[in-house]
Amino acid sequence: DSGPGIPPDEQDKIFNPYYRGQQGRRIRQGMGLGLSIARDLVSAHGGRLVVDSTPGLGSHFTVWMPRCAS
Question: I need a labelling partner for 8 at 20 to 30 A (CA). Which of 23, 45, 56, 68 fits?
Answer without folding.
Answer: 45
